[in-house]
Amino acid sequence: MTCSLTDTQVDGLHTNVFLPDTAPRSVLIIRTPYDAAAYRAEAHAWVRRGIAVVTQDVRGRHRSRGRFRPFENEGADGLATLQWVASRSWGGAPVILHGTSYSAHCAVETAIAAAEAGVDVGGVSVAVPALGLGETARNIDGCFYLQSRVGWWLEHGEGPESPGVAIPDGLLDTLPVADVGRRATPPISAWEKVIRADRRDRERRAEVSRLRCPLLAVGGMADWFAQDTVDLWTSWGGPAALVMGPWDHSLRGSDRARRMESWIDDVCAGTTTTGAQVLGLPGGTVDLTRWPSTEASTVLPGGRFPADPTDPFPSMAHGADLSEATARPDCLVLDLPNHSDVVVGTPAVRVHSTDAVGHWGALLAIRRSDGRLEQTAHGMSTHTTIHLTPVAAHLDTGESMVLILLAHSFPRHARDLQSRNDHLAGTETRAVIREVESVTLDMPA
């Protein structure tokens, strides 16, 4: 199937339109800050499937006019683009708002704006969604994502092009964290706004609960935004499908295009796809109608460990071997009783301590038969309840789970200074002994 390409402007936003040589069966809209031209190969692949594609540089990026204000006004600009598509002769097919990472934010905000304006949307397809300024800056328990935020703002910047700057040595050690933006090269002028941004979980849940169009959400257990992906699916008001697998933010190996095409076929046919699929486990796909709740509680003994912000416990990647790290004195390693061979859901940890002020962190790991201590979930909290990242794990015979309690996870998260100074504005640090009376681990049933 041949493809015709048109470059145009929609309200000052550079827009590419890729059309099949017959009437499209659906239309994808992809709005991105990462250069719409980079989507040409993907667009041609969709056109070969009879699907039209509209790609667009968000305001202030690449060939679009205006100033780039990350995570602002994407709903209004997306709605204007959606209305423009509907006015085209080829725009009568179901319109799918599609996006990965930041583009997923664009898709969700456009769907919300369209619902408020009474404009029809055929469906929303998102992957590893970066849902907002606050949602990318903090986890659900309020801890600041230091490494990823410095990395994103240096790599992509606030201008029309991405400078691609890497994090220089020593920058993440800066105190106060509030000075990172000024000390970075180039400076991050929006840094104060970033570190003060709040999550909008309650407001967003209310907004998406009113949507009635279908949703496909794809996420990775090793992705920063795994829980946000699950929460979006859980809160969606229309028919919603979730696919989670053992992927990171790149989604390598996820076969996402095939899954998405099957979902689009269902949308075009007027059928609804619902439920969740968890992939990557040895026993095959786990099908769910709801995300498993934490119903099985285990009380574990406490203990004590030192915590020093000048030598913080290091953050490690999903699947990493924690054997060497847990030999450090600044953590509490707790072996768990025997558990079922498959664990799927979102665990939570409740720390019982007289030292209630401060950050608390936890890692969930599997003691593998080959001797590795494999990290399978992590969490950091500004209080004594820690919501870990989603888990999809399989334990072979003889393997067991381990909970590791800690005070820092650096540089993934900004350090707790433990001096009662604000951890983003303060400079004074203090080494302390963390006293734990007991720990309650809430696991999916």
Automatic annotation (TrEMBL):
<dbReference type="InterPro" id="IPR000383">
    <property type="entry name" value="Xaa-Pro-like_dom"/>
</dbReference>
<dbReference type="GO" id="GO:0016787">
    <property type="term" value="F:hydrolase activity"/>
</dbReference>
<dbReference type="Pfam" id="PF02129">
    <property type="entry name" value="Peptidase_S15"/>
</dbReference>
<dbReference type="InterPro" id="IPR005674">
    <property type="entry name" value="CocE/Ser_esterase"/>
</dbReference>
<protein>
    <recommendedName>
        <fullName>Xaa-Pro dipeptidyl-peptidase-like domain-containing protein</fullName>
    </recommendedName>
</protein>
<dbReference type="InterPro" id="IPR029058">
    <property type="entry name" value="AB_hydrolase_fold"/>
</dbReference>
<feature type="domain" description="Xaa-Pro dipeptidyl-peptidase-like">
    <location>
        <begin position="12"/>
        <end position="250"/>
    </location>
</feature>
